[in-house]
Write a structure and sequence with these properties.
The chain is α+β, with helices and mostly antiparallel strands. Helix content is about 40%, strand content about 15%. It has 20 helices and 16 strands.
Length: about 500
């Protein structure tokens, strides 16, 4: 049974006022996300967070995996907690940047652990209870440890068990009959598995939705999703990309608290969801991380097992590329590669002794810290987002399967095809960035707006080299193939420009 919590966004600020009394602004009690109960579930299973201020002490708590972001910070005279780091800045949180965290972001595209761009603001760790009553906050973990033993199931048994558990989980999360729900559908496995489980349960969604891919990626998702929904007789909507990618990037930054370089292409979907008033939408987050082995790599596994964290960090962070030239010398020295390697090595070390360390590392970092910001930062403004792959029974089954089960990336395909034999078979397509050109009008709009944005404010206060960026934006307006790539090439620079200008607007720089 699905239990939906009432709140989507909230902030609570507590400060010591005159006569030593607490002054409170915002919501003293808030509850976010959902939980579910039924066969195969455990108490408090779901994606949720809550806080409660009783006038003397504050308690903040979240679910086992912590995919719903809750940010907190201390003030000299109080404490604050929010679903938005931006709201904490507006409430007066110190905006000093966390240099090691930013150094990682510039090379990886996301933050690791519980870092944010700001030294004073942290993310609530997974499965944690935070208590504060006027002194330092006390954090206690209540999440079960990741299993350190390898599963004894055969591969055939694991495939069959996965199919059975997933169906049970989806049925335990179904909204009430008559409540409208939608399912985003791509050409891959995760969303199709959800859709087929719903059809098997006799609970067809009111709408299936697919976002048209942003160039240079081809629109394979829309094409395959249209074929699947036609075969099933389901309603299908394709959301087109907007004409102003730059505006979408800025909106994405605010919704994700400057913690992601991706997801601008999902802003049109977020707007559409807000208009439709669905009770719930489903999301395939974390499906590929365990059941498709997308991050499994023998070199990575060897470096984990040999505890070569600096070498592994350097490999994951990739080459410096544009960074030495696109950042000012002061910014590049401040956010240098050495501190990025050191910070990432600290995070990698936490997973080294697990049976398949790459999967949980990317689950708690890449998936939780960046991918989760789309469903639980952007799409959940008015709609409850359900994530069946975050079921404890599914996680516990897949987390300690042997690395070798996922070679060839066929494990998830087999689980779907063997369990839903009565449903249509279509090829699973994982489309890399392609060669579809962007419209020139969109390229010119993006380049002009980014150039104007980069020229705002004194150059000595900017982290970006204008003499690097502006000629390349001019090139983008002339050379269409290069212009198509520009929003991705400079996505992290745009996040940093937007971040520094936002902080400057608040009078903190």
């Amino acid at each position: 049974m699905l239990h939906r919590n009432p709140d989507h966004q909230a902030t609570l600020v507590i400060r010591r006022g005159s006569e030593n009394a607490w002054q409170v602004t915002g919501q003293p009690v808030a509850s976010f996300g959902y939980s579910c109960s039924g066969p195969g579930t455990v108490q408090d299973e779901g994606v949720w967070a809550r806080w409660d201020w009783d006038g003397r002490s504050l308690t903040v708590r979240n679910d086992r995996f912590g995919f719903l972001p809750i940010y907190y910070c201390e003030f000299p005279n109080g404490f604050a907690v929010s679903t938005s780091a931006i709201d904490l800045l507006n409430a007066g949180a110190d905006s000093t940047l966390d240099d090691a965290a930013v150094a990682v972001f510039l090379r990886l595209g996301y933050y690791v652990g519980n870092d944010t761009p700001f030294r004073a603001i942290k993310l609530l760790p997974p499965g944690t209870e935070l208590k504060w009553s006027g002194s330092r906050p006390q954090l206690t973990s209540h999440a079960p440890a990741i299993p350190q033993t390898v599963s004894t199931l055969t591969r055939e048994q694991a495939v069959r068990e996965y199919g059975e558990r997933f169906q049970t989980v989806v049925e335990s999360m179904l909204p009430e009959r008559g409540e409208r729900m939608c399912v985003p559908l791509s050409a891959g496995r995760d969303s199709r598995h959800i859709l087929y489980a719903l059809v098997r349960a006799g609970h067809n969604p009111a709408m299936v939705v697919t976002a048209r891919s942003a160039p240079p990626r081809p629109s394979t998702d829309a094409e395959v999703a249209a074929q699947i929904t036609a075969a099933l007789g389901l309603n299908h909507t394709i959301i087109e990309q907007s004409d102003d990618r730059f505006a979408d990037e800025l909106e994405k930054d605010l919704l994700t608290s400057f913690c992601a370089d991706e997801h601008a292409q999902m802003v049109p979907v977020a707007r559409w969801l807000n208009e439709q008033n669905f009770a719930a939408s489903w999301d395939g987050i974390a499906g590929d991380i365990f059941s498709c082995g997308v991050y499994n790599d023998t070199r990575m596994l060897d470096q984990f097992r040999n505890r070569q964290f600096a070498e592994l960090s350097s490999w994951l962070l990739d080459s410096e590329g544009y960074l030495p030239h696109s950042l000012t010398k002061d910014a590049y020295d401040r956010w240098n590669r050495g501190i990025a390697v050191h910070r990432l090595s600290q995070e990698l070390e936490q997973y080294a002794d697990l049976p398949n360390p790459a999967a949980p590392f990317f689950f708690y970092n890449r998936v939780r810290r960046e991918l989760a910001l789309c469903p639980y930062g952007m799409l959940n403004r008015k709609t409850q987002i359900l994530a069946p792959y975050l079921s404890h029974s599914v996680f516990d089954l897949l987390i300690n399967l042997p690395f070798e089960f996922f070679k060839g990336r066929l494990f998830h395909s087999e689980a779907i095809d063997q369990f839903y034999t009565e449903l249509p078979k279509f090829e699973y397509v994982s489309t890399p960035v392609g060669t579809v050109p962007e419209r020139r009008s969109r390229i010119w709009r993006f380049a002009r707006r980014l150039g104007s944005f980069a020229m705002t404010g004194p150059p000595q206060q900017s982290c970006v080299q204008r003499q690097f960026l502006l000629p390349r934006l001019a090139k983008a307006m002339i050379q269409r193939s290069y212009g198509t790539e520009v929003p991705v090439l400079f996505s992290r620079l745009l996040v940093m420009l937007h971040l520094e200008q936002s902080v400057r607007t608040m009078g903190r720089m």
